[in-house]
Write a sequence for this structure.
């Protein structure tokens, strides 16, 4: 049987899930991925899932990436969120010259993270200078390099324009040692992502450490993955995290119900057709959500593999919003969240697998911001 390129990433994700789950409470407590987890992610090649094959990456199909993300998220959502962020950031390698890409991604640990689009860089001889601070940099605490997406202005301060009149925006890349990181992520959910802020002051960025992101004409790699672009891939990956958390929440709730031995309730709870875990529809919501998400992947990603175009307005929908589609019932995403909207977010002092999954599902680092 022919397996998709990178398929073993999913199998490896399932294999290390117990290790990640064992570290999940410590990840939430310290608000960082633990060294044990980061080492396992690196050793199994997960950070290189979307890196071009020419650079030693897996260049995995988007479906494989989504399955990998879902499996990791079942064990710990913060780990999956950081991994997804940094994996998609690595797609910028497709727009860099090979020497620069090797310097960034083949120098251990070879992890890139970035935050929301903001601020500007001034063009100078040989590159750009920038002084700015960016937010929502999930995965920055594991990264060896940071990036930022900035508007370009000329030496006289005049904004540069593209041929269509839009502002020229470049992605700039620099070692994490060039920046100051600010510990600001004090969230009740996805606490372990370390979605912190970072800033640089009068930093010079050589021209070769800049790129046009998601611009087909700037691509040096011709693989279909890079025609999809980072924007759509971010959405698909994060939606897969939501599915993983939903499945983990359901599994934790079932485990909790099975562990209860309240007087007079055990027989009723385990009775076929009763309110207990034997009811046949227990996994229906997550299965329907997965089908909806896969349908969204078909709509967004597959057409872009065949022609190098930017997603149109109809293709820019967020697959995360698809979880509200009527096909999975009224308020599907709300019901899957098991928190925030329906019954409130549990207090962080309550430390059970179920409450942690509910807190994670209620968080969304960078919501409303372009990454």
């Amino acid at each position: 049987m022919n397996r998709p390129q990178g398929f073993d990433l999913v199998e490896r994700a399932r294999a290390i899930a117990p290790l990640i789950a064992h570290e999940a409470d410590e990840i939430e407590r310290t608000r960082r991925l633990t060294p044990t987890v980061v080492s396992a992610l690196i050793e199994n090649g997960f950070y290189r899932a979307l890196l071009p094959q020419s650079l030693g990456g897996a260049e995995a199909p988007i479906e494989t990436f989504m399955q990998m993300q879902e499996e990791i998220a079942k064990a710990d959502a913060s780990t999956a969120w950081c991994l997804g962020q940094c994996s998609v950031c690595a797609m910028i390698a497709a727009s860099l010259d090979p020497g620069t890409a090797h310097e960034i991604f083949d120098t251990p640990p070879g992890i890139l993270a970035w935050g929301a689009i903001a601020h500007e860089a001034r063009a100078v001889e040989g590159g750009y200078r920038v002084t700015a601070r960016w937010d929502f940099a999930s995965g920055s605490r594991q990264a060896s390099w940071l990036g930022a997406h900035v508007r370009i202005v000329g030496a006289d301060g005049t904004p540069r324009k593209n041929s269509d009149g839009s502002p020229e925006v470049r992605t700039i890349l620099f070692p994490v040692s060039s920046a100051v990181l600010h510990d600001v992520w004090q969230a009740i959910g996805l606490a372990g992502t370390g979605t912190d802020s970072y800033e640089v002051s009068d930093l010079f960025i050589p021209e070769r450490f800049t790129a046009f992101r998601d611009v087909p004409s700037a691509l040096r790699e011709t693989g279909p993955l890079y025609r999809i672009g980072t924007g759509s891939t971010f959405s698909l990956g994060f939606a897969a995290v939501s599915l993983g958390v939903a499945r983990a929440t359901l599994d934790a709730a079932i485990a909790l119900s099975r562990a209860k031995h309240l007087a007079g309730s055990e027989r009723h709870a385990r009775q076929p057709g009763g309110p207990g875990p034997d009811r046949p529809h227990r996994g229906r919501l997550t299965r329907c959500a997965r089908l909806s998400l896969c349908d969204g992947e078909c709509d967004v990603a597959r057409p872009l593999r065949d022609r190098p175009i930017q997603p149109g307005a109809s293709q820019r929908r967020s697959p995360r919003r698809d979880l509200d589609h009527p096909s999975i019932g009224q308020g599907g995403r709300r019901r899957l969240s098991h928190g925030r909207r329906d019954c409130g977010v549990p207090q962080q002092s309550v430390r059970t697998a179920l409450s942690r999954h509910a807190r994670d599902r209620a968080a969304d680092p960078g919501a409303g911001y372009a990454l």
Remarks:
- Residues 272-280, 311-350 have pLDDT under 50 and may be disordered.
- The radius of gyration is 21 Å.
